[in-house]
Amino acid sequence: MGDAVIDELQAWLDDQWDPELTVAEWWERLGTSGWAAPSWPVEWFGKGLSRDDSVRVQQTIAAHGALGAPGGLGLLLAGPTIVTHGSDEQKGRYLRDIVTGQRAWCQLFSEPGAGSDLAGLQCRAERDGDEWVVNGQKVWTSGGQIADLGMLIARTDWDVPKHQGISYFAIDMAQPGVDVRPLREITGRAMFNEVFLTDARVPDSELIGGLGAGWAVANTTLANERAGLGAGGGSAAASAAVPGQVMGHLSKRAGDFVRSRSGKKGGGGAGAVGMVGAAEKLLVELAKGNGTIADPILRQDLMRLHSLNEIARFTNLRMKAAKAAGKAPGPEGNTAKLMMSAIVRMSREIGLKVLGPQGMLHAYDDADKDALVAATGNPFAPMVTELALFSPAPSIYGGTDEIQRNIIGERVLGLPKEPSQDKVLPFRELPKNG
User: Fold this and answer.
1) What is the pTM of this model?
2) Are 95 and 111 in a shared domain?
3) How far from the centroid of its chain's Cα atoms is residue 51's Cα?
4) Are strands 149-155 and 105-108 parallel, antiparallel or unpaired?
5) Euclidean distance between CA atoms 93 and 90, whole angstroms
6) Residue span of the structural domain in which 52 resides
7) Is residue 229 part of a domain?
8) pLDDT tens digits, residue range 383-421?
9) What sign does the dihedral 75-38-340-382 (CA atoms) show?
10) Are the C-beta atoms of 189 and 121 separated by less than 8 Å?
């Protein structure tokens, strides 16, 4: 089936791709044709393909030189969650705007006192007629400053055990009472935000999965997140154009973003995030270039890194096989997430060994990066140092390494859980974090 799908896609691209289209026009064609989210059901803007064929679709779009599907959390998280738990009315309202890039999404899950213990969240939603009034704080919200909509989990019942009193909403980010504040990281970037919700409103029709069912819905989102963030995957056609109404990319020429993806500045960049998958090859070439490849210890480290990447690739193939068999993301996603943390840490150590004293230098903006490259003669040094500074992040975001191990231990190995009253006491009676 795979070759027939690719032949169909190639013919479609030959007929439909035009770099002179606006981003919005191209994504309308791509999304409504089913090629933007080919693993989704046919009746909801997909083609019902396996994950393996879907990856080949992405690779084919990239190889053709066309702009890829809208990136971000819409396709990665919100869409699959709504496909699984949303009503037909909600699917009709949201999914088209996701595959055509008309709306960008962010994830309003973690809180200052509810990160690893996400079910301990205290952001509250209180019913007011046909609406809910939301008050609380969220943190580590990727893309919050450019999002049109948010995936919000909030406490709607304080008198039941904590997992049962959570509900999941789609909330309008462009409303009074939603205050997004960027958080600058050690790398110099500001990928994450804190979000303050003060009497923000969300219609009852935006409740996804039913009242009090938010924990189950959120777990679908988290399973897709861990599979997407895990090592061994990757999207060959990830788009440099940003979906949604905030960034203003929809009205721009689609072909310009294809060129920016192939090396020119522009269209934004994922920095260390985007470099992770290519780190092994880059480090080998850097080591060859400065002679450190002759160090036997470094060669062993590079071989360990290659082995981890291969293990991660095979784990990803297991996830693809499970998806093709109609199974939801399982423990392979947790394993892949752990593997990503290990690979990034190892890449950091190897990269700094290869750079030597240059690894002490880092630049936080484009002008300083140009100066650093001129001073060192190494155009890749800023990438390696940024990855080194970024390296603690994968062990924290998307569920800490400790959480992944707990999930694997309890749900896969059947190990006993820690003693707790979480399942029986009303949330308001549980001790809260200070």
Assistant:
1) 0.80
2) no
3) 17
4) parallel
5) 5
6) 2-99
7) no
8) 899 999 999 988 988 778 998 899 899 988 999 988 888
9) negative
10) no
Residue with tokens 């300083």: 368
How big is the chain, counted in residues? 434
CA–CA distance, 313 with 317 (Å, rounded to integer): 6
Q: Residue 260, Cα to own-chain centre: how many angstroms? A: 21
Q: What is the pLDDT of residue 189?
A: 85
The count of other CB atoms within 10 Å of the CB of residue 426 is 14
Alpha helices in 325-365, H assignment, sequence order: 331-355
Other C-beta atoms lying within 10 Å of the C-beta of residue 433: 11
Q: What are 48's two structure tokens?
A: 């019902």
CATH number at residue 334: 1.20.140
- Burial of 324-357, coded b for 16+ CB within 10 Å and e otherwise, reads eeeeebbbbbbbbbbbbbbbbebbbebbbbbbee
Domain total in the chain: 3
Neighbours of 136 (CB within 10 A): 21
91 to each of 25, 52, 88, 244, 292, how far by Cα in Å?
21, 24, 5, 18, 54
